[in-house]
Design brief:
37% of the residues lie in helices and 16% in strands. It is α/β, with parallel strands linked by helices. Strands 1, 4, 5, 6, 7 and 11 form a 6-stranded parallel sheet that branches.
Length: 247
């Protein structure tokens, strides 16, 4: 019953806040019936329905958003291995998601290893930073936070042989101090878990994204059409920590 109420709320919100502005949607993993690496994973059946809905609603999945309307960028957080297992679908449908890697998770059970990451990069997948230890960045002191940011950047640049200047906050938490440290470490684009449209970016480089990994087809349709906008304040109260209360 609770899920049905939530679904109806999203559908209604999508109608009331309907727009075709470009957005980022994000997941953690995808899986076939045979193999699932995390409870945060989305079945390929549902993911395929999501992609079909995007096209039916007039959106184009793109590697990087350039237009203010009708484009969708797809993100995956953490680097789970289900993305690699299902790479053929992404390639066949010209989907080139951005995957944010936490260095400490690379090669661990259920996560992609370095060779799999490089194979996907050769296929056009984009990899950026998810910090080093995949922990709440607001909980680190300045010295450890600096290491989290710079060490992950250096590791990925050495592995990928490209500049890494984008970062997604682990677990979603951030603060003004974290934002400033990220910029000092050389990151130019900072991905949050706050919902909204892509071009509603603050001057500090913060980007909004919409979590859709558990969305039914009707919820997903509503979200890409603007249903998450009224919930921005709720997400911000949960994820924006200022001053850093957890230090």
């Amino acid at each position: 019953m609770l899920h049905k109420i939530k679904e109806l709320a999203f559908v209604l919100s999508g109608k009331l806040n309907a727009n075709t502005k470009s957005k980022i949607v994000f997941y953690h993993d995808v899986h076939s019936p045979e193999k699932r690496y995390t409870d945060m994973s989305t079945s390929m059946d549902i993911f395929i329905q999501h992609i079909e809905i995007l096209k039916a609603e007039g959106y184009t999945p793109v590697a990087k958003i350039k237009n203010k309307t009708n484009q969708i960028q797809i993100n995956f957080d953490d680097g789970f291995k289900g993305i690699y297992d299902n790479k053929d679908y992404f390639v066949k449908h010209n989907l080139r998601p951005t995957i944010f890697l936490a260095i400490s998770l690379i090669g661990q059970e259920g996560y992609m290893n370095a060779s799999e990451i490089l194979e996907l990069q050769d296929l056009g997948f984009i990899f950026e930073s998810h910090a080093y230890a995949h922990e709440n960045l607001t909980s680190f002191n300045d010295e450890d936070l600096n290491y989290e940011l710079k060490a992950s950047k250096a590791y990925l640049e050495d592995l990928l042989k490209k500049e890494v200047n984008e970062l997604c906050f682990p677990i979603g938490y951030f603060s003004d101090r974290v934002l400033n440290c990220c910029k000092d470490a050389g990151y130019k684009i900072l991905y949050s878990s706050l919902p909204g449209n892509y071009h509603n970016k603050r001057t500090d480089g913060l980007v909004y994204r919409n979590l859709v990994q558990f969305s039914s087809p009707s919820e997903f349709k509503a979200i890409v059409n603007g249903a998450m906008s009224p919930f921005f304040g709720w997400y911000k109260r949960k994820q924006y920590v200022n001053p850093d209360e957890n230090r």
